[in-house]
């Protein structure tokens, strides 16, 4: 389902490039804050990564018949061909309704502490169940999903192989687990930053290294660190200075809706910055399309820093080095419907 292309010659050339005097100290500082995405893939104890389960998850991810209308699939909002997002400010769902928030990328989501902007889903399996049942997204029910899947011989066979030994393998929980297994393969290793962190001095140019230094020195890495450059903690949006109402809509109070505690008012999970250069628009509101503008907003709102043009340009250049190898996913052939397969509802 997935192929990565790496030029061995290119990597060797980078490793052979002459080291710059400040690379060692800068790299040591960076290693204290960041990790590379392993080429071997995510190693999560709670996710079963068998070929049968991954292949089933891919079918479910791409199948629009999971939605009540037969139009929307996971791929609709998390397009694997454009960075794992849909490229919209907020996603379009059932009845052509606009969703309340921007769709986060599915790429590298397996490394996040929780899913959704407010962290209401503890893992990818829990996340997979949410959009299916949301009236503004797929507008379906667990019962109708399992009924649809059981009506197609291809899915009956695929679930039996993915969940061997189970008397009734086609359940809503197993549906979510299979999607989780597939999504765990959607990682983007071998970014130029990762190559540099592992010792390839020529992988970053001077401006990009200045951007990395500024990213750390200005405090960006306080929230955006770890393997995914974020996705691990929750912070108030507007920690120092609240952004405008278009960027931070009054009605969206973030994690407060999950915990109902005052301390979580307008608190959101720090956005992962992997592949940020190709996943516009930005923020949960999705109203900012320019990465340079997003960096300026974060400097003012989160750091209380009036970043100068050089710092902003350098940080943006550095963020571009976080774009990794994109997973090449082959669209699966989906099971054929039968006379028992529920017909799509009119929107």
Automatic annotation (TrEMBL):
Instruction: Please state the span of the N-terminal signal peptide per the UniProt entry.
Output: 1-21
Q: Enumerate the transmembrane spans.
A: none
Is Protein biosynthesis one of the keywords?
no
Q: Which PANTHER family match?
A: CYTOCHROME C PEROXIDASE-RELATED
Q: Which UniProt keywords apply?
A: Heme, Iron, Metal-binding, Oxidoreductase, Periplasm, Signal
Q: Supply the name of the protein.
A: C-type cytochrome
Give the cofactor note text. Answer: Binds 2 heme groups.
């Amino acid at each position: 389902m997935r192929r990565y292309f790496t030029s061995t010659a290119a990597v060797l050339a980078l490793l052979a490039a002459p080291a710059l005097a400040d690379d060692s100290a800068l790299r040591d500082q960076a290693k204290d804050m960041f990790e590379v995405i392993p080429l071997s893939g995510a190693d999560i104890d709670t996710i079963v990564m068998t070929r049968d389960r991954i292949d089933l998850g891919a079918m479910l991810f791409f199948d629009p018949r999971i939605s009540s209308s037969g139009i929307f699939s996971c791929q609709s909002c998390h397009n694997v061909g454009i960075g794992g997002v849909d490229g919209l400010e907020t996603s379009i769902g059932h009845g052509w309704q606009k969703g309340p928030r921007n769709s986060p990328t599915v790429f590298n989501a397996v490394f996040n502490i929780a899913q959704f902007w407010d962290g209401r889903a503890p893992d990818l399996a829990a996340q997979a169940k949410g959009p299916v049942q949301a009236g503004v997204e797929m507008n379906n029910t667990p019962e109708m999903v399992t009924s649809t899947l059981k009506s197609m011989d291809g899915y009956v066979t695929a679930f039996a192989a993915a969940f061997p030994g189970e008397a009734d393998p086609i359940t809503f929980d197993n549906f979510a687990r299979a999607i989780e297994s597939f999504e765990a393969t959607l990682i983007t290793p071998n970014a130029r930053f990762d190559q540099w962190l592992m010792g390839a001095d020529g992988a970053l140019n001077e401006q990009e290294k200045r951007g990395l230094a500024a990213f750390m020195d200005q405090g960006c890495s306080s929230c955006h660190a770890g393997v995914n450059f974020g996705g691990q903690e929750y912070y108030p949006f507007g920690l120092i200075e609240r952004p405008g109402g278009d960027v931070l809509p009054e009605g969206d109070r973030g994690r407060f809706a999950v915990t109902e505690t005052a301390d979580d008012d307008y608190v959101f999970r720090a956005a992962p910055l992997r592949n940020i250069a190709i996943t516009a628009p930005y923020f949960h509101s999705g109203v900012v399309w320019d990465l340079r503008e997003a960096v300026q907003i974060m400097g003012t709102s989160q750091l209380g820093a009036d970043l100068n043009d050089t710092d902003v340009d350098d940080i943006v250049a550095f963020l571009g080095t976080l774009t990794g190898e994109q997973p090449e996913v082959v669209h699966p052939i989906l099971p054929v419907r039968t006379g028992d397969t529920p017909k799509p509802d009119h929107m």
